[in-house]
């Protein structure tokens, strides 16, 4: 027996207007300082007439549990009936954890697992409004939180932390900087490919992945050259959400396992880090997933298409100006090699190892890190 899980998705022009239909009494808005300063939070507030607000705008790029948990006393006193996240993956993931802890103060954050029934939504609901096009967090039942003590990223998952509503309004991403546009789109492409070839793939996750590739790849290279084009923005934004639905209903793979490890150790942006490993992981998986890779490859426009998906992805990443080697990130080679065992250990503990189409030993993972240098 399988399940396909999704929030209610509201998309297209003026999607933020949906907020007015919910009769929200008290809302916690979770965001970061840059998004607040850019006036994007204000666009949301304009659609919350008569709503009491508590605004948390200090979520960092790589949130640690202690850094977000400091707000729990204030949230408990405020007694919200909705949490509204306005931001990228870190903001949305943080809102999921704050929502969980508000609902279940008796549990610890690591109790968020698919195996434990949490009985959430006794007091509030969760809305996600992404300001990037790539993480897919608005449509997933996972959250990634940094563990400051272990220098690692914890991947928490439960169907109950999936947002109730995901609002995909293109005006929220129209001013997304070039670097973030490229990094988050790279993340979305990786989500679609890994969701499509996961050992837990299914007809629903496959359909989402295929459509995501069809929407994102023809649009993203053009968008980098024409960043004001709202049609292209909308294509990538919706495609990224579909990629999130794909991997959320099938799971990630080895590129994410390696990328999470590199990001945790050296603070490389997530989309950039998974993109570095994606070509090598595709090559590594070809014997196990070659047929599905070739099917995806046929969806890529001829001008970017190589003979194999591996070749196509390299062509696309280069066309975007994306980093494809660890050495290009500014990481010191000595530091990389001195921490190689730790990198391999962290990657080996990821859930992406379990669902990757090909078995990956510790030696395989070590080789992939070294080959990606």
UniProtKB/TrEMBL annotation:
- List the protein's name: Alcohol dehydrogenase IV
Name the Gene3D superfamilies on file: 3.40.50.1970, Dehydroquinate synthase-like - alpha domain
Task: Note the superkingdom of the native organism.
Answer: Archaea
Q: Which residues form the Alcohol dehydrogenase iron-type/glycerol dehydrogenase GldA domain?
A: 8-170
Tell me, what's a Pfam family for it?
ADH_Fe_C
The Fe-containing alcohol dehydrogenase-like C-terminal domain sits at: 181-371
UniProt KW keywords? Oxidoreductase
According to the UniProt entry, its GO molecular function terms are:
alcohol dehydrogenase (NAD+) activity; metal ion binding
Q: Which InterPro entries match?
A: ADH_Fe/GldA (IPR001670), ADH_Fe_C (IPR056798), ADH_Fe_CS (IPR018211), Alcohol_dehydrogenase_Fe (IPR039697)
């Amino acid at each position: 027996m399988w399940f396909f899980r999704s929030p209610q998705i509201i998309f297209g022009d003026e999607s933020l207007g949906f907020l007015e239909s919910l009769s929200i009494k008290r809302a916690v808005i979770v965001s970061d300082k840059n998004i607040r300063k850019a006036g994007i939070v204000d666009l949301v507030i304009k659609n919350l007439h008569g709503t009491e607000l508590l605004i948390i705008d200090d979520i960092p790029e790589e949130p640690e549990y202690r850094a977000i948990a400091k707000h729990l006393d204030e949230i408990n006193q405020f007694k919200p009936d909705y949490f509204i996240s306005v931001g990228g993956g870190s903001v949305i993931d943080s809102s999921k954890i704050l929502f969980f802890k508000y609902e279940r103060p008796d549990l610890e954050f690591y109790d968020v697992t698919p195996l434990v029934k949490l009985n959430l939504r006794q007091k509030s609901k969760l809305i996600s409004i992404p300001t990037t096009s790539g993480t897919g967090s608005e449509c997933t039942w996972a959250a990634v939180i940094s563990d400051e003590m272990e220098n690692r990223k914890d991947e928490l998952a439960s169907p109950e932390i999936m947002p109730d509503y995901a609002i995909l309004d293109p005006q929220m991403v129209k001013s997304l900087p070039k670097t973030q546009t490229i990094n988050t789109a790279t993340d979305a492409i990786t989500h679609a490919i890994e969701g499509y070839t996961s050992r837990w793939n299914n007809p629903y996750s496959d359909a989402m992945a295929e459509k995501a590739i069809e929407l994102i790849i023809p649009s993203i290279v053009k968008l980098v050259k024409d960043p004001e084009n709202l049609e292209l923005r909308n294509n990538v934004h919706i495609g990224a959400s579909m990629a999130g639905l794909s991997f959320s209903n099938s799971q990630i793979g080895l590129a994410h396992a390696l990328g999470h490890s590199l990001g945790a150790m050296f603070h490389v942006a997530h989309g950039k880090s998974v993109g570095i490993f994606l070509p090598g992981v595709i090559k590594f998986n070809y014997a196990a997933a070659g047929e599905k890779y070739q099917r995806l490859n046929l969806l890529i426009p001829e001008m970017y298409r190589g003979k194999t998906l591996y070749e196509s992805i390299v062509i696309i990443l280069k066309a975007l100006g994306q980093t494809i080697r660890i050495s290009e990130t500014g990481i010191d080679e000595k530091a990389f090699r001195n921490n190689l065992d730790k990198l391999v250990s962290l990657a080996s503990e990821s859930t992406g190892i379990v669902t990757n189409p090909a078995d990956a030993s510790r030696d395989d993972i070590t080789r992939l890190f070294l080959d990606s240098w």
